[in-house]
Write a structure and sequence with these properties.
Length: 112
């Protein structure tokens, strides 16, 4: 699918409102499918979860600690469409290299 997120808004709890590049939009409850362990552990805290943003180059939902969510999975949950070919490795090869800390500081913040 390779859907890009163009907007993310933080809602109550661990819910996000997302809009994709093809106009599809809706809400997803991240707590319904995520175990808040490892890199995702800080997302348990509401203040940290609210720091969600769309990565300006990769167009994925992400947080300052580097945690991100697969846009295709989010799209499938919102649109109720099945993932036909979910190949994370292929998606990773298409992503740009990681930004340095100076570039990260200048990234636009989400509307939370």
């Amino acid at each position: 699918m390779l859907k890009d997120v163009v907007e993310v808004r933080c809602l109550e709890g661990h819910r996000l409102h997302l809009r994709f590049d093809d106009g599809v939009e809706g809400e997803v409850d991240v707590a319904a499918f995520m175990k808040f362990t490892g890199v995702f552990a800080p997302l348990r805290e509401a203040a940290f979860f609210a720091q969600v943003r769309v990565h300006p180059e990769l167009r994925v939902v992400c947080w300052p600690n580097g945690a991100d969510l697969d846009s295709d999975v989010l799209y499938a949950r919102i649109s109720k469409k099945r993932l036909t070919s979910h190949k994370p490795a292929a998606r990773m090869r298409q992503r740009a290299p990681s930004l340095g800390s100076a570039a990260k500081a200048s990234q636009p913040q989400a509307q939370c």
